[in-house]
Amino acid sequence: MLSRICLSWVLLVLLTGSTVSELIVIGEVGQNITVPCHYSVRSTNSITSMCWGRDRCPSSKCSKPIIWTNGWRVTEQHSSRYQLKGDLHRGDVSLTILDAREADSGTYCCRVEIPGWFNDQLINHKVVVKKARISTASPHIYTSEQTSGPGSTTESSFTVTRTWPSVSASEAPQTASTPCSGPSDCLDVTVNLQNTSVSLPSQQHPEHGLYIGIGLCAALLLILILALLLT
């Protein structure tokens, strides 16, 4: 009779003692992943030790432990990529995995050691680390406008914007073959070409004007001499 009572008490403790819950955390390769875990801290006496392990929570401690804390600071750390960045004094013992890799996928155990028999708080997390998404979108160079009518195939017309350099009067002969961006630009280029073509003869033969001036001076001088002789 006594053995049955003891067995019943042990089963009751096992079933109602430690609490176990499971969560799923999904992240991408190269990112920092935070696996949450908290416990209640009512006073400084409630601060306790805990551990993280790479497997489901066993009956005691952590299997394949990766980090330990006494509630005040980290006492054991398997790798610098595993860190506790939360406020330990307030019960935030969340695990941060830096620069996550696909090999980090798996089950993680958060075990908070609560004083007493079978009082530990147990949380199993399933961490899934996926490859980063790669964008396949290519940059668009042209802006297309699609027009379609009933019974006709779809056609695409491309709108391209060009900026032409300004043309000065002295450079007009060399840039006469450049396309005009509008009717007003073509009119300005034509007027500059006409002005330039009219002024070319006087620039190419300046000596003709000099000879004509000398001849007129000589004729006037001859007329003055004849007038003096006659008087």
UniProtKB/TrEMBL annotation:
* Keywords per UniProt: Disulfide bond, Glycoprotein, Immunoglobulin domain, Membrane, Signal, Transmembrane, Transmembrane helix
Q: In what way does this protein cross or attach to the membrane?
A: Single-pass type I membrane protein
> Where in the cell is the protein located?
Membrane
Q: Which PROSITE patterns match?
A: IG_LIKE
Annotated SMART domains: IG
Which InterPro entries does the UniProt record give?
Answer: Ig-like_dom, Ig-like_dom_sf, Ig-like_fold, Ig_sub, Ig_V-set
What residue intervals traverse the membrane? 209-230
* Annotated GO MF terms: phosphatidylserine binding
Where is the Ig-like domain positioned along the sequence? 30-135
The residues forming the signal peptide are 1-21
What's one GO BP annotation on this UniProt entry? apoptotic cell clearance
One Pfam short name: V-set
Cellular component, GO annotation: membrane
Q: Which domain of life is it from?
A: Eukaryota
Tell me what this protein is called: HAVR1 protein
What organism is listed for this UniProt entry? Motacilla alba (White wagtail)
Name of the coding gene: Havcr1
